[in-house]
Amino acid sequence: GSTLEIRDLQVAVEDKEILRGVNLTVRAGETHAIMGPNGSGKSTLAYAIAGHPKYTVTGGQVLLDGADLLDMSVDERARAGLFLAMQYPVEVPGVSVSNFLRSAVTSVRGEAPKLREFAKDLKAGMDALSIDAAFAQRNLNEGFSGGEKKRHEILQLELLKPKIAVLDETDSGLDVDALRVVSEGINRFRSSGETGVLLITHYTRILRYVKPDFVHVFAGGRIVEQGGPELADKLEAEGYESYTKATA
Ligand code: ADP
Ligand code: MG
Ligand code: MG
């Protein structure tokens, strides 16, 4: 199985230091939750791992099976087995969901999937996520609701079969039914035991459906506490106040 190793990662945005030395190892078969208050740098961590140009790495390493992701282009990171949900956040006129997904699979595998095989996998993935068939022909991200964006994210996961998935705020904007469908998708993805998941969230509610093996509390750009799933229950009961006071 694969291992994602984040070592003393420091990241700045527009000359402002946001991440102040993050250390975290995610192994295949493990689900890690990163939880923390708004503005603590959770999304900055996800963007930096994904290679977003606005986020400047000022120190540290991010290794996937020993290879430094930070030396790779965004495409190379995906080919190495990292799932980058926010690689294509923009609306792309004239590119359908189906075309986008097929070219994403082609890019990651290094060869185009057979049309019939792809169509079958796409239909199975959409059925599993209760996505209407017409969705495949819509323009990428154009007018997507919050729920459609999240379902599309999990659909990519099912088709691309990455080694490590970093999911940022996958639960935000979902009603209870959509949350359940999306959570089931994540659970299917990790059920092989061969993939690692880093689930970033402000709220504890998705963790009722997707049980993490480890919970990390993020505050002030670093991990300030770690524990098992019981830590999420503590956060649910007590909130983040004790952590934000300590780092303010
Ligand atoms: P979280 O996801 O935990 O809410 P973020 O990583 O989004 O936190 O933000 C952490 C800090 O970095 C905040 O102070 C935020 O204002 C700043 N920040 C994040 N992204 C940007 C950006 N693209 N431009 C300017 N500041 C940013
Ligand atoms: Mg520093
Ligand atoms: Mg965020």
From TrEMBL:
GO terms for molecular function: ATP binding; ATP hydrolysis activity. The keyword Iron-sulfur does not apply. Pfam families: ABC_tran. InterPro entries: AAA+_ATPase, ABC_transporter-like_ATP-bd, FeS-cluster_ATPase_SufC, P-loop_NTPase. Gene3D superfamilies: P-loop containing nucleotide triphosphate hydrolases. The keyword Nucleotide-binding applies. It comes from the Bacteria. Keywords: ATP-binding, Nucleotide-binding. CDD domains: ABC_FeS_Assembly. Residues 4-245 form the ABC transporter domain. Belongs to the ABC transporter superfamily. Ycf16 family. This is ABC transporter ATP-binding protein. The lineage of its organism: Bacteria, Bacillati, Actinomycetota, Actinomycetes, Streptosporangiales.
